[in-house]
Amino acid sequence: MNRSSIALCNLRAVVIIIVLAFHSVLPYLASLPVAAYPFDSAPYQWLAFPIVDRERWFGFDLFCAWQDVGLMTLMFFLSGLFVPSSLARKGTLKFLSDRLLRIGIPFVLAVIFLAPLAYYPAYRSTAVDPSLNAYWQHWLSLPFWPSGPQWFLWQLLALNILAAAMHGFVPGWGERLVRLGTFAGGNPARFFVVLVTISALAYVPLALAYSPFPWTNIGPFSFQLSRPVHYLVYFFAGFAVGAYGLDRGLLASDGVLAQRWAAWVAVAFVGFLLWAAPTSMTMADWSNAPFALKFATGMGFVAACAAGFLCLLAICLRFAHERRPAFDSLSTNAYRMYLVHYVFAVWLQYMLLDAALFAIAKAAIVFSGTLIMSWAIAAIMGGVPMTFRRNAAIRGVHRT
Hints:
α2 (58-81) crosses α9 (228-244), α7 (173-184) crosses α9 (228-244) and α8 packs antiparallel against α12 (291-319). The protein has a two-stranded antiparallel ribbon with strand order 1-2. The chain is 73% helix and 2% strand. It contains 14 helices and 2 strands, in the order ααααααααββαααααα.
Protein backbone atom coordinates (compact mmCIF):
# COMPACT_ATOMS: atom_id res chain seq x y z
CA MET A 1 0.00 0.00 0.00
CA ASN A 2 1.49 3.34 -1.07
CA ARG A 3 1.72 6.41 1.16
CA SER A 4 -1.29 8.14 -0.39
CA SER A 5 -3.51 5.09 0.13
CA ILE A 6 -2.41 4.86 3.76
CA ALA A 7 -3.16 8.56 4.21
CA LEU A 8 -6.65 8.08 2.76
CA CYS A 9 -7.29 5.12 5.09
CA ASN A 10 -6.15 7.21 8.03
CA LEU A 11 -8.37 10.04 6.83
CA ARG A 12 -11.34 7.69 6.99
CA ALA A 13 -10.43 6.98 10.62
CA VAL A 14 -10.22 10.71 11.32
CA VAL A 15 -13.61 11.26 9.69
CA ILE A 16 -15.41 8.68 11.85
CA ILE A 17 -13.85 10.21 14.98
CA ILE A 18 -15.15 13.64 13.92
CA VAL A 19 -18.62 12.21 13.17
CA LEU A 20 -18.82 10.67 16.64
CA ALA A 21 -17.57 13.89 18.24
CA PHE A 22 -20.10 15.96 16.29
CA HIS A 23 -23.06 13.88 17.42
CA SER A 24 -21.70 13.67 20.98
CA VAL A 25 -21.68 17.43 21.61
CA LEU A 26 -25.02 18.42 20.05
CA PRO A 27 -27.01 18.65 23.33
CA TYR A 28 -24.51 21.15 24.72
CA LEU A 29 -24.69 23.87 22.06
CA ALA A 30 -25.14 27.33 23.51
CA SER A 31 -27.55 28.21 20.70
CA LEU A 32 -30.17 25.61 21.69
CA PRO A 33 -33.41 26.64 23.40
CA VAL A 34 -33.95 26.19 27.12
CA ALA A 35 -36.32 23.22 26.81
CA ALA A 36 -36.23 20.08 24.70
CA TYR A 37 -38.11 20.09 21.41
CA PRO A 38 -41.64 18.55 21.55
CA PHE A 39 -41.89 15.19 19.87
CA ASP A 40 -45.19 15.66 18.02
CA SER A 41 -44.79 19.21 16.71
CA ALA A 42 -43.43 20.32 13.35
CA PRO A 43 -40.76 21.04 12.28
CA TYR A 44 -39.60 18.14 14.50
CA GLN A 45 -36.32 19.70 15.54
CA TRP A 46 -35.60 16.73 17.80
CA LEU A 47 -34.49 14.91 14.65
CA ALA A 48 -31.31 16.99 14.75
CA PHE A 49 -31.21 17.56 18.52
CA PRO A 50 -32.76 14.55 20.28
CA ILE A 51 -31.47 15.68 23.67
CA VAL A 52 -31.23 19.25 24.96
CA ASP A 53 -29.11 19.62 28.09
CA ARG A 54 -29.05 22.57 30.47
CA GLU A 55 -25.23 22.63 30.38
CA ARG A 56 -23.80 24.56 27.40
CA TRP A 57 -20.49 25.65 25.93
CA PHE A 58 -20.17 27.99 22.94
CA GLY A 59 -17.02 26.22 21.75
CA PHE A 60 -19.20 23.30 20.67
CA ASP A 61 -21.24 25.67 18.48
CA LEU A 62 -18.06 26.67 16.65
CA PHE A 63 -16.95 23.05 16.29
CA CYS A 64 -20.31 21.92 14.89
CA ALA A 65 -20.53 24.92 12.55
CA TRP A 66 -17.08 24.10 11.19
CA GLN A 67 -18.05 20.46 10.65
CA ASP A 68 -21.37 21.39 9.06
CA VAL A 69 -19.61 23.06 6.15
CA GLY A 70 -16.78 20.58 5.65
CA LEU A 71 -17.49 17.13 7.01
CA MET A 72 -20.34 15.87 4.81
CA THR A 73 -18.71 17.41 1.76
CA LEU A 74 -15.56 15.44 2.52
CA MET A 75 -17.54 12.24 3.07
CA PHE A 76 -19.22 12.47 -0.33
CA PHE A 77 -15.88 13.27 -1.96
CA LEU A 78 -14.20 10.26 -0.33
CA SER A 79 -17.14 8.05 -1.29
CA GLY A 80 -16.67 8.96 -4.95
CA LEU A 81 -12.90 8.38 -4.95
CA PHE A 82 -13.02 4.60 -5.15
CA VAL A 83 -16.01 4.24 -7.48
CA PRO A 84 -14.03 4.33 -10.78
CA SER A 85 -11.74 1.46 -9.85
CA SER A 86 -14.66 -0.54 -8.47
CA LEU A 87 -16.72 -0.04 -11.64
CA ALA A 88 -13.78 -0.97 -13.84
CA ARG A 89 -13.06 -4.09 -11.82
CA LYS A 90 -16.62 -5.36 -11.30
CA GLY A 91 -18.64 -4.02 -14.20
CA THR A 92 -21.97 -2.23 -13.89
CA LEU A 93 -24.24 -5.06 -12.69
CA LYS A 94 -21.85 -6.52 -10.13
CA PHE A 95 -21.06 -3.02 -8.87
CA LEU A 96 -24.77 -2.27 -8.41
CA SER A 97 -25.52 -5.56 -6.65
CA ASP A 98 -22.59 -5.03 -4.29
CA ARG A 99 -23.71 -1.47 -3.50
CA LEU A 100 -27.26 -2.61 -2.81
CA LEU A 101 -25.91 -5.21 -0.38
CA ARG A 102 -23.40 -2.88 1.25
CA ILE A 103 -25.46 0.31 1.42
CA GLY A 104 -29.11 -0.46 0.67
CA ILE A 105 -29.70 -3.33 3.09
CA PRO A 106 -27.87 -1.67 6.02
CA PHE A 107 -29.91 1.49 5.37
CA VAL A 108 -33.18 -0.43 5.56
CA LEU A 109 -32.18 -2.36 8.69
CA ALA A 110 -30.81 0.72 10.45
CA VAL A 111 -33.92 2.76 9.68
CA ILE A 112 -36.31 0.03 10.81
CA PHE A 113 -34.53 -1.05 13.98
CA LEU A 114 -31.85 1.42 15.07
CA ALA A 115 -33.66 4.72 14.41
CA PRO A 116 -36.61 4.00 16.78
CA LEU A 117 -34.15 2.80 19.42
CA ALA A 118 -31.98 5.91 19.07
CA TYR A 119 -34.88 8.37 19.27
CA TYR A 120 -36.69 6.85 22.23
CA PRO A 121 -34.82 9.16 24.67
CA ALA A 122 -35.95 12.17 22.60
CA TYR A 123 -39.55 11.11 23.20
CA ARG A 124 -39.01 10.41 26.90
CA SER A 125 -37.53 13.89 27.42
CA THR A 126 -40.91 15.59 26.85
CA ALA A 127 -43.47 12.78 27.11
CA VAL A 128 -46.37 12.70 29.55
CA ASP A 129 -46.47 8.92 29.20
CA PRO A 130 -42.89 7.70 28.64
CA SER A 131 -43.85 4.04 28.22
CA LEU A 132 -42.62 2.06 25.26
CA ASN A 133 -46.15 1.40 24.04
CA ALA A 134 -47.01 5.12 24.07
CA TYR A 135 -43.76 5.90 22.29
CA TRP A 136 -44.57 3.44 19.54
CA GLN A 137 -48.00 4.98 19.02
CA HIS A 138 -46.48 8.46 18.76
CA TRP A 139 -43.78 7.15 16.42
CA LEU A 140 -46.31 5.60 14.05
CA SER A 141 -48.32 8.83 14.10
CA LEU A 142 -45.45 10.84 12.65
CA PRO A 143 -45.93 11.88 8.98
CA PHE A 144 -42.62 10.22 8.06
CA TRP A 145 -40.26 7.54 9.35
CA PRO A 146 -37.16 9.15 10.94
CA SER A 147 -33.86 7.82 9.66
CA GLY A 148 -31.35 9.81 11.72
CA PRO A 149 -27.80 9.97 10.36
CA GLN A 150 -28.63 7.22 7.85
CA TRP A 151 -29.92 9.90 5.47
CA PHE A 152 -26.36 9.89 4.17
CA LEU A 153 -26.68 6.27 3.05
CA TRP A 154 -29.69 6.62 0.78
CA GLN A 155 -28.22 9.66 -0.94
CA LEU A 156 -24.91 7.85 -1.34
CA LEU A 157 -26.70 4.83 -2.82
CA ALA A 158 -28.56 7.08 -5.27
CA LEU A 159 -25.27 8.63 -6.41
CA ASN A 160 -23.70 5.20 -6.86
CA ILE A 161 -26.67 4.10 -8.96
CA LEU A 162 -26.30 7.25 -11.06
CA ALA A 163 -22.56 6.59 -11.54
CA ALA A 164 -23.28 3.01 -12.59
CA ALA A 165 -25.97 4.16 -15.04
CA MET A 166 -23.59 6.70 -16.58
CA HIS A 167 -20.90 4.05 -16.83
CA GLY A 168 -23.24 1.61 -18.53
CA PHE A 169 -25.19 3.89 -20.86
CA VAL A 170 -23.07 6.98 -21.59
CA PRO A 171 -19.90 5.92 -23.41
CA GLY A 172 -16.87 8.09 -22.76
CA TRP A 173 -18.28 9.98 -19.78
CA GLY A 174 -15.60 8.48 -17.50
CA GLU A 175 -12.88 9.78 -19.77
CA ARG A 176 -14.32 13.28 -19.49
CA LEU A 177 -14.09 13.09 -15.71
CA VAL A 178 -10.54 11.79 -15.99
CA ARG A 179 -9.73 14.91 -17.97
CA LEU A 180 -11.18 16.95 -15.14
CA GLY A 181 -8.94 15.08 -12.71
CA THR A 182 -6.00 15.72 -15.01
CA PHE A 183 -6.91 19.39 -15.14
CA ALA A 184 -6.84 19.52 -11.33
CA GLY A 185 -3.66 17.44 -11.35
CA GLY A 186 -1.00 19.01 -9.22
CA ASN A 187 -2.69 22.41 -8.97
CA PRO A 188 -4.96 22.45 -5.88
CA ALA A 189 -5.67 26.18 -6.24
CA ARG A 190 -7.09 25.64 -9.72
CA PHE A 191 -9.09 22.67 -8.46
CA PHE A 192 -10.44 24.86 -5.63
CA VAL A 193 -11.59 27.58 -8.03
CA VAL A 194 -13.30 25.11 -10.37
CA LEU A 195 -14.96 23.30 -7.48
CA VAL A 196 -16.25 26.51 -5.90
CA THR A 197 -17.60 27.67 -9.24
CA ILE A 198 -19.45 24.45 -10.02
CA SER A 199 -20.76 23.93 -6.49
CA ALA A 200 -21.95 27.57 -6.39
CA LEU A 201 -24.10 26.87 -9.45
CA ALA A 202 -25.42 23.75 -7.72
CA TYR A 203 -25.99 25.19 -4.25
CA VAL A 204 -26.64 28.92 -4.27
CA PRO A 205 -29.89 28.93 -6.33
CA LEU A 206 -31.42 26.27 -4.06
CA ALA A 207 -30.23 28.06 -0.92
CA LEU A 208 -31.80 31.29 -2.16
CA ALA A 209 -35.05 29.50 -3.01
CA TYR A 210 -35.44 27.39 0.13
CA SER A 211 -32.91 28.93 2.59
CA PRO A 212 -29.84 26.94 3.67
CA PHE A 213 -31.44 25.42 6.75
CA PRO A 214 -34.67 23.38 6.29
CA TRP A 215 -34.91 19.62 5.83
CA THR A 216 -37.72 17.64 4.27
CA ASN A 217 -38.79 14.07 5.04
CA ILE A 218 -40.51 11.71 2.64
CA GLY A 219 -41.07 8.37 4.34
CA PRO A 220 -37.60 7.23 5.51
CA PHE A 221 -35.82 9.57 3.09
CA SER A 222 -34.69 12.88 4.50
CA PHE A 223 -32.57 15.56 2.86
CA GLN A 224 -31.63 19.18 3.23
CA LEU A 225 -33.38 21.08 0.48
CA SER A 226 -30.40 23.19 -0.51
CA ARG A 227 -27.70 20.51 -0.61
CA PRO A 228 -28.41 17.37 -2.71
CA VAL A 229 -26.92 18.77 -5.92
CA HIS A 230 -24.00 20.20 -3.96
CA TYR A 231 -23.24 16.71 -2.65
CA LEU A 232 -23.57 15.32 -6.18
CA VAL A 233 -20.84 17.75 -7.30
CA TYR A 234 -18.47 16.55 -4.59
CA PHE A 235 -19.21 12.88 -5.19
CA PHE A 236 -18.31 13.21 -8.86
CA ALA A 237 -15.35 15.45 -8.03
CA GLY A 238 -14.08 12.53 -5.98
CA PHE A 239 -14.87 10.22 -8.90
CA ALA A 240 -12.77 12.42 -11.23
CA VAL A 241 -9.81 12.58 -8.85
CA GLY A 242 -10.01 8.84 -8.19
CA ALA A 243 -10.15 8.06 -11.91
CA TYR A 244 -7.00 10.12 -12.44
CA GLY A 245 -5.16 8.15 -9.75
CA LEU A 246 -5.13 7.62 -5.99
CA ASP A 247 -1.40 8.22 -5.64
CA ARG A 248 -0.72 11.16 -7.93
CA GLY A 249 -1.89 14.65 -8.73
CA LEU A 250 -4.07 16.07 -5.97
CA LEU A 251 -3.65 12.94 -3.83
CA ALA A 252 0.13 12.57 -4.05
CA SER A 253 1.61 12.36 -0.55
CA ASP A 254 4.50 14.54 -1.73
CA GLY A 255 2.36 16.71 -4.01
CA VAL A 256 1.60 20.41 -3.89
CA LEU A 257 -1.51 20.00 -1.72
CA ALA A 258 0.37 18.09 0.96
CA GLN A 259 3.38 20.37 0.84
CA ARG A 260 1.27 23.50 1.26
CA TRP A 261 -0.94 22.18 4.03
CA ALA A 262 -0.35 25.23 6.23
CA ALA A 263 -1.61 27.53 3.48
CA TRP A 264 -4.77 25.43 3.20
CA VAL A 265 -5.33 25.70 6.94
CA ALA A 266 -5.28 29.47 6.50
CA VAL A 267 -7.60 29.27 3.48
CA ALA A 268 -10.00 27.05 5.45
CA PHE A 269 -10.05 29.56 8.31
CA VAL A 270 -10.81 32.43 5.93
CA GLY A 271 -13.46 30.36 4.16
CA PHE A 272 -15.14 29.57 7.47
CA LEU A 273 -15.27 33.27 8.35
CA LEU A 274 -16.72 34.11 4.92
CA TRP A 275 -19.56 31.70 5.66
CA ALA A 276 -20.03 32.29 9.40
CA ALA A 277 -20.26 36.09 9.27
CA PRO A 278 -23.21 36.42 6.85
CA THR A 279 -24.86 33.26 8.23
CA SER A 280 -24.97 34.75 11.72
CA MET A 281 -26.85 37.75 10.27
CA THR A 282 -29.36 35.73 8.24
CA MET A 283 -30.09 32.70 10.43
CA ALA A 284 -32.69 34.40 12.65
CA ASP A 285 -34.82 35.77 9.78
CA TRP A 286 -33.71 34.47 6.40
CA SER A 287 -36.84 35.50 4.51
CA ASN A 288 -36.40 39.18 5.35
CA ALA A 289 -32.62 39.36 4.97
CA PRO A 290 -31.23 41.46 2.07
CA PHE A 291 -30.56 39.53 -1.13
CA ALA A 292 -26.89 40.52 -1.09
CA LEU A 293 -26.47 39.02 2.37
CA LYS A 294 -28.23 35.82 1.34
CA PHE A 295 -26.00 35.54 -1.72
CA ALA A 296 -22.91 36.12 0.43
CA THR A 297 -24.07 33.35 2.76
CA GLY A 298 -24.41 30.91 -0.14
CA MET A 299 -21.06 31.81 -1.66
CA GLY A 300 -19.41 31.66 1.74
CA PHE A 301 -20.78 28.16 2.23
CA VAL A 302 -19.35 26.76 -1.02
CA ALA A 303 -15.98 28.45 -0.39
CA ALA A 304 -15.86 27.10 3.17
CA CYS A 305 -16.77 23.59 2.00
CA ALA A 306 -14.05 23.44 -0.64
CA ALA A 307 -11.40 24.97 1.61
CA GLY A 308 -12.34 22.83 4.62
CA PHE A 309 -12.23 19.51 2.83
CA LEU A 310 -8.96 20.37 1.04
CA CYS A 311 -7.47 21.40 4.39
CA LEU A 312 -8.25 18.04 6.03
CA LEU A 313 -7.08 16.18 2.94
CA ALA A 314 -3.81 18.13 2.87
CA ILE A 315 -3.08 17.52 6.55
CA CYS A 316 -3.63 13.76 6.25
CA LEU A 317 -1.58 13.49 3.05
CA ARG A 318 1.26 15.37 4.74
CA PHE A 319 1.28 13.81 8.20
CA ALA A 320 -0.84 10.61 8.21
CA HIS A 321 0.94 8.45 5.64
CA GLU A 322 2.21 5.81 8.07
CA ARG A 323 0.23 2.85 9.32
CA ARG A 324 -0.94 2.72 12.92
CA PRO A 325 -2.83 -0.29 14.34
CA ALA A 326 -5.53 1.85 15.98
CA PHE A 327 -6.12 3.87 12.82
CA ASP A 328 -6.15 0.69 10.71
CA SER A 329 -8.86 -0.72 12.96
CA LEU A 330 -10.86 2.52 12.96
CA SER A 331 -10.65 2.74 9.19
CA THR A 332 -11.73 -0.88 8.75
CA ASN A 333 -14.66 -0.49 11.14
CA ALA A 334 -15.64 3.09 10.24
CA TYR A 335 -18.72 2.20 8.20
CA ARG A 336 -20.16 -0.15 10.82
CA MET A 337 -19.42 2.42 13.53
CA TYR A 338 -21.37 4.98 11.53
CA LEU A 339 -24.33 2.63 11.39
CA VAL A 340 -24.58 1.97 15.14
CA HIS A 341 -23.00 4.93 16.94
CA TYR A 342 -26.05 7.18 17.15
CA VAL A 343 -27.89 4.83 19.50
CA PHE A 344 -25.07 4.98 22.04
CA ALA A 345 -24.58 8.74 21.70
CA VAL A 346 -28.24 9.66 22.31
CA TRP A 347 -28.78 7.24 25.19
CA LEU A 348 -25.62 8.39 26.95
CA GLN A 349 -26.71 12.02 26.55
CA TYR A 350 -30.10 11.15 28.02
CA MET A 351 -28.55 9.31 30.97
CA LEU A 352 -26.36 12.34 31.78
CA LEU A 353 -29.18 14.91 31.74
CA ASP A 354 -29.36 15.16 35.53
CA ALA A 355 -25.65 14.68 36.19
CA ALA A 356 -23.98 17.62 37.98
CA LEU A 357 -21.22 18.02 35.39
CA PHE A 358 -20.08 20.78 33.08
CA ALA A 359 -20.87 20.54 29.36
CA ILE A 360 -17.29 19.65 28.42
CA ALA A 361 -17.22 16.78 30.92
CA LYS A 362 -20.56 15.43 29.71
CA ALA A 363 -19.49 15.64 26.08
CA ALA A 364 -16.22 13.86 26.88
CA ILE A 365 -18.10 11.00 28.58
CA VAL A 366 -20.57 10.70 25.71
CA PHE A 367 -17.82 10.74 23.09
CA SER A 368 -15.63 8.22 24.92
CA GLY A 369 -18.52 5.86 25.58
CA THR A 370 -19.84 6.14 22.03
CA LEU A 371 -16.40 5.56 20.57
CA ILE A 372 -15.65 2.51 22.71
CA MET A 373 -19.04 0.84 22.35
CA SER A 374 -19.56 1.50 18.64
CA TRP A 375 -15.97 0.42 17.90
CA ALA A 376 -16.45 -2.80 19.86
CA ILE A 377 -19.78 -3.62 18.20
CA ALA A 378 -18.36 -2.81 14.77
CA ALA A 379 -15.36 -5.05 15.35
CA ILE A 380 -17.65 -7.91 16.43
CA MET A 381 -19.87 -7.38 13.37
CA GLY A 382 -16.81 -7.38 11.13
CA GLY A 383 -15.43 -10.51 12.70
CA VAL A 384 -18.50 -12.67 12.04
CA PRO A 385 -18.00 -13.05 8.26
CA MET A 386 -14.32 -13.81 8.83
CA THR A 387 -15.30 -16.59 11.20
CA PHE A 388 -17.70 -18.05 8.65
CA ARG A 389 -15.01 -17.91 5.95
CA ARG A 390 -12.43 -19.49 8.23
CA ASN A 391 -14.77 -22.32 9.21
CA ALA A 392 -15.68 -22.89 5.56
CA ALA A 393 -12.02 -23.08 4.66
CA ILE A 394 -11.37 -25.60 7.42
CA ARG A 395 -14.28 -27.75 6.25
CA GLY A 396 -12.91 -27.56 2.70
CA VAL A 397 -9.50 -28.78 3.87
CA HIS A 398 -11.09 -31.67 5.77
CA ARG A 399 -13.06 -32.72 2.69
CA THR A 400 -9.88 -32.91 0.63
